[in-house]
C-alpha cells in the first residue's frame, strides 16, 4: 500500500444500514452503492478510523427545516404500518413505482439525510465532509420525487447557512438539481449551479439556461447535449465556474457528485469518463473557499449513479482526492473481488476491469456537439447574473 495516509482533513460519513437492499428488488437503485465504494476504499487501505463517522438519523426538527410536518409523520407512519396508504401515496408520492416502499422505509433515507447535516457540521468544524449516501436533489418539501425521499442536499446547505455563510451549490449529476434550485431560488445567499442532460432526460423541460435568467435569481443551468465528452464538458464548465465564483464570492461550496454523468451509466446519456468526473471535482476542490489553515470549506454528497462498478470506482477516486491521497491505478486484489461479487454483467469483458479508472476509446469530439456547446456558452454569457456589473 502506498500513500495511504491523508494529506487533507476530510471526514467520510458512512453507515451500516447501507448494506441493506433499499428500494426493493426491481429498481435502478436496488444495487450496492455506498457499501461497495466503502469496500473499495478499505481495500486500498485509504481510510483511517479517525476519518470515518457513522451516519445518524436526522431528527424530525431537522427534516422539518425543509419538509412539511405532514410529510415527515406520514413517512414515519408508513414504516410503522409496513405499507403506504392510498391517500399518502397520492399526496406525497410515497410507495409508488418511482419511489417504492421498502423495509426501514423511513429509517434509511432519514439516516442518509442526517449524514448530510453531519457532513455540514464537519465543514463548520474545519474539515471536508463527504456523505456518499446523500445528494437526493429531486425531493420536494411535501413529496418524494425521482427516487429522492428527503432532500439532504437542501438540509446540508441550510446547516451551512446557519453559520451566516453564502453557499454555492454545484450539481454535476446527470440530472437537473431541480429540488435544490426550487428551494433557494429567491435566496440571494445561496447560488445553485447545475450541469445536466438537456430535455431528452428526467425531469424533462427543466433546467434550461433561460429558466432562471431573471434578474435577482441566484441560479444558473447548463443543459448539455447527449454524449458530451470530457473536453466539451470542460468548455461548458469553465464558462460558468470561475465567473460564478468571482461574482457570488461564496463562503462554502456544496458539491453534488452523481456518477450518472459517466458514460457507462445505464440511465445517463453523457459521454464523460471517470477521469473527466474527477478532473471537474478537482477544480472545484482547488478553487473552494478555505478555512484559515487552507482546508477547503467543501461539503460533498453522492447522488445518482446506476452502474455500481463505475460508481464505486468514481467515489473511491473522489475520496482519495478529498483526503489528499494518490491511489495506484491497479485495484488491490480484495477490491477486484468486491467488484466481481456484484451480480452485474455489463462490463465483465472490460479491459480495464482491474483498474481504478475505466477508459473510453471512442471519445473523439463531434462537430455537432461542439456547436451546441458553443451556443450554450453564448447563452450562459447573456445570463443576467453574470452580465450585471
Ligand atoms: Zn441523476
TrEMBL record:
Residues 27-321 form the Histone deacetylase domain. Pfam families: Hist_deacetyl. Keywords: Acetoin catabolism, Hydrolase. Pathway: Ketone degradation; acetoin degradation. GO terms for biological process: acetoin catabolic process; epigenetic regulation of gene expression. GO terms for molecular function: histone deacetylase activity; hydrolase activity. It comes from the Bacteria. Belongs to the histone deacetylase family. This is Acetoin utilization protein AcuC. It comes from Sulfuriferula nivalis.
